[in-house]
Structure formats: structure tokens, C-alpha cells
Design goal:
The chain has helices spanning 11-19, 59-65, 67-74, 76-87, 121-140, 168-179, 197-209, 228-243, 278-290, and strands spanning 3-6, 25-28, 33-34, 39-40, 50-53, 92-96, 108-109, 143-148, 151-153, 181-183, 191-196, 216-219, 224-227, 248-250, 265-266. The chain is of the alpha/beta class. It has 2 domains: 3-152 and 194-219, NAD(P)-binding Rossmann-like Domain (Rossmann fold), CATH 3.40.50; 158-192 and 224-260 and 275-300, UDP-galactose 4-epimerase, domain 1 (Alpha-Beta Complex). The strands form 5 sheets. The chain has a 6-stranded parallel beta sheet, with helices on both faces. Strands 9-11-13 form a 3-stranded mixed beta sheet. It is globular, with a radius of gyration of 20 Å.
């Protein structure tokens, strides 16, 4: 059984790799795509039974290469890649998408009932890739799995080297470590569902092991749902306990008296228990910061 994993060194890819410890995984990373030619380097992709794509378009890529090139990677280039590996014999394709495809204001996220709100380029690219997987699976009559996680946390393959430290599971702890405070840019009332990379891996593996598998699109309900503001308070509490320092959450003045309580319910077609815990991750991340283990990029120097 050959499993080809694109994006294996990233946070999500590492969570999937951990779930498949007993299986041989062919690992492929960012050097497999050329923005110059707008194509995947097809020769790097050999025969496999399962293809897992955990390297979807990032906001950093859109800024660096522009929307047109990002859309080509998300759409046309992805279709060409899938066509190639399926003609080599692949029968199961998996894509890790995002919960952000839904409206920020939606209370219940249901794969069948909740409308998507594609109002930014990041969402557009992920929807493009989702549609590519669905189209190819239908064309070749094979199985697909599409998962939509929320705010993903966890460690990459190289534990101390992160590519996307601006995401709030990392940027909030780093801000506390460097400045003893978190500065919110808004009210912080936006709701987030936090999902461990290990729990993404667990769902991929659950579908993989199912002998009667069918094509599935599923949200992922992670272990913690809270507002951005409440997450900042969780980070602050853990920081103060570990570093023995006082810290603050700085909320813009015009938002200080706004405390709208909202709910967020994430429905999921693949219903299994989570195995990881957000607060445990934060404790470990803070400890690594304390020991100067995390490699902070230029924006933090």
C-alpha cells in the first residue's frame, strides 16, 4: 500500500504522518511545484494507492506570487497532477481544505446546509482545489475525502521550524513571550474552532481504514471552540503561570465595551473523538519559547 503525502513537513502534514506510523509514506514538499512554469514537477509523483494533499494555498503565497498564479496552482495545476497520479493507478485522493469557506457570521457549520461565503482570495483558492478533487474523482469514478479544519495548531516535522507563525495559535504566544501582551486588532468576538494536526491525521486514517469507504466531505470539529478574545485570555493565563510574569490583552478602546456572546457549532460527517488538547499544546509551545528552541523569523527579531 503506497501513500503519497504532499506537504509532509508542514504542521498538517506532520499530523497526518504521525497517524500513519505503521505505513510507508512517500513524502513530497514545496519543491515539487514551480511557480515559474505554473506546474507541479510531475516526475516527483510516482505510483500510489492514496494521494494526500495537505499543502493547500496559503495567504503568504497569494501575497508573494499574486492571485492569478495562486489560482493556477489551486486549480489547473492540481487537476493536471491528479490526472497524472490517477492514470498511474491511484484510487483514493484526499484534500485538506479549511473551515474558513463559511461565513464568519455563521453559527452552525453544516457541510450540506450552510452556504459558503467566498469573499477573499484565500477562500477562492481552497474552493478551487476542492472542486478540482471532486471533478477528477467523478471523472475517474474514484473516492475522495475533503476535510475542512478550523484554526490548526501543532508542530511541523522539524519541531522548532514553523513556516506560518503569524497564525494565532502561534502569534499570540509569541507576542506574550516578546512583549508580555497581546494586541487585538478588533473586538476579538470572532469565533474560532481550534483543531490539532493530530486530529486531522486521525480522521484521514479513519477514512483510510474503512473498507467500505465512500467519497466524503467533512468539517472537523476540533477540541476547543471560543472567541479570539477568549483565546487570548487562555494564552495569557498559561503564559503567566510558566513565565511568572504579568501580561495583558490590549483591546482597542472602541471595542472595549462590546462583548457580544456568539456560538459556533461545527457539524462533521466523520464523527470521532479528538485525541489532542489546545491547552497542552500551548504549554509545550511556551516551554519551547522559554528555552529559545523555536526559530523566530525576521518579523520577530
Amino acid at each position: 500500500m503506497k501513500i503519497l503525502l504532499l506537504g509532509s513537513n508542514g504542521v498538517i502534514g506532520n499530523g497526518i504522518s504521525s497517524a500513519f506510523k505503521k505505513h510507508k509514506i512517500i513524502k513530497i514538499n514545496s519543491d515539487s511545484y514551480s511557480y515559474k512554469s505554473n506546474k507541479y514537477k510531475i516526475k516527483k509523483f510516482g505510483k500510489c494507492d492514496y494521494f494526500i494533499h495537505s499543502a493547500g494555498i496559503t495567504e503568504e503565497e497569494i501575497i508573494k506570487y499574486g492571485l492569478a498564479k495562486s489560482l493556477k496552482r489551486a486549480g489547473k495545476a492540481t487537476i493536471q497532477l491528479l490526472d497524472h497520479i490517477i492514470k498511474l493507478g491511484c484510487k483514493n485522493i484526499i484534500y485538506i481544505s479549511t473551515l474558513r469557506l463559511y461565513s464568519e457570521k455563521a453559527i452552525i457549520l453544516n457541510e450540506k446546509k450552510t452556504k459558503l461565503q467566498i469573499n477573499d482570495n484565500y477562500k477562492l483558492c481552497h474552493l478551487k482545489s476542492e472542486n478540482a478533487f471532486k471533478k477528477i474523482a467523478k471523472q475517474f469514478k474514484i473516492n475522495f475525502l475533503i476535510l475542512r479544519p478550523g484554526a490548526v495548531y501543532g508542530f511541523p516535522y522539524k519541531k522548532y521550524k514553523f513556516n506560518r507563525l503569524k497564525l494565532i495559535p502561534y502569534s499570540f504566544p509569541i507576542s506574550l513571550y516578546l512583549k508580555n501582551k497581546i494586541i487585538l486588532k478588533s473586538s476579538g468576538n470572532q469565533m474560532r474552532n481550534f483543531c490539532s494536526n493530530k486530529d486531522i491525521g486521525k480522521r484521514v486514517y479513519h477514512w483510510f481504514k474503512n473498507k467500505n469507504k465512500i467519497s466524503t466531505l467533512s468539517n472537523i470539529s476540533g477540541d476547543k471552540t471560543c472567541s479570539v478574545k477568549d483565546f487570548s485570555f487562555i494564552c495569557t493565563r498559561i503564559f503567566e503561570k510558566i513565565f511568572k510574569k504579568k501580561a495583558i490583552v490590549d483591546i482597542p478602546f472602541k471595542f472595549r465595551n462590546t462583548s457580544k456572546k456568539r456560538k459556533l457549532i461545527v457539524k462533521q460527517n466523520i464523527k470521532i473523538k479528538n485525541i489532542d488538547n489546545l491547552e497542552n499544546f500551548l504549554k509545550e509551545f511556551f516551554q519551547l519559547l522559554k528555552k529559545n528552541k523555536i526559530i523566530l523569523k525576521k518579523q520577530y527579531s
